């Protein structure tokens, strides 16, 4: 009996030593697992970045096509500012295409220890409602601002959007800046100012209202910056703490967020469309379309799908990196989108000039600076993990 108790104590002592001092093979396995996780993370970030670039390009191409075919190039104040609730609704209405994808992607193993109280569910519901209203407001203001503001005013005020995002991220998300991120922000603002694409629905001199356009564009920029920060806050403080995700960031969270927020935003925009009586103008809009009813419907459907591609990519960048990085990527796509617009459309006095070429080159520097910052952070995390698991052999 005494021998049995002694053997048990010896076994327990060996197990505790094994836990405190893991074997080299175990440490190597942990490092490999961390490397695989890092590679998956970079792959996810690259995919989301591609979706943002693709979505931005398609949206601007189809928006220009729509407004050129809608005769917005002609001077007509009564026509210039119509259809904004329709455009706001189009930005959010195609979310049902994401529902099958939501069920295709597998959820991680549920964590029974994760807090999943009714209070947490109520806060998530409140988050979706608030973000839906905010996204609807941004969609409406974006549609109005582009029709009221000329190219120069809209570009300059929209460039300030990144500054708002940086300020809100620092306050709301407790984001820590370094010199590489600051350099990236400054370069991105310059890139956006000199590299933004032309817009076919831009007003002429007789249709401009300078006292309105600045405030509309300004309010839209603030709403967009706030929405990015609240998306990030929702991921980090609410969704990741639910039982179904078990403290893991997965792409399915992006789909859930986009579906729920877009649903609320679509309802708000639909109410605005009906309340304003703008739905009565849809028939006239389709008849006025140069290429006919079929192309009118196809252009709206294409716009709706393109907005969803862009939104999923942007929210994915918010999940995997930050709202600030998502805004940087979104604004850095402007020179590439400008090149595509120049090649696709023949706007007066619009060409891919030297400032835009410089902006396109600067895009690599801005994104490279931010990517270098992320690389350093990931390297520091791996080094810290190596030190924690290091043992004397």
From TrEMBL:
Segments crossing the lipid bilayer: 41-68, 88-105, 125-145, 151-172, 177-194, 214-233, 254-275, 295-321, 328-348, 354-372
Keyword Membrane appears in the UniProt entry: yes
One Pfam family from the record: PUNUT
Keyword field contains Transmembrane helix: yes
Segments forming a coiled coil: none
InterPro entries in the cross-refs: PUP_plant (IPR030182)
Topology of this chain in the membrane: Multi-pass membrane protein
Biased composition range(s): Basic and acidic residues: 11-21
Cellular localisation: Membrane
Disordered, as annotated region: 1-25
Annotated family: Belongs to the purine permeases (TC 2.A.7.14) family.
Protein name (database record): Probable purine permease
Taxonomic lineage of the native organism: Eukaryota, Viridiplantae, Streptophyta, Embryophyta, Tracheophyta
Gene: BnaAnng12080D
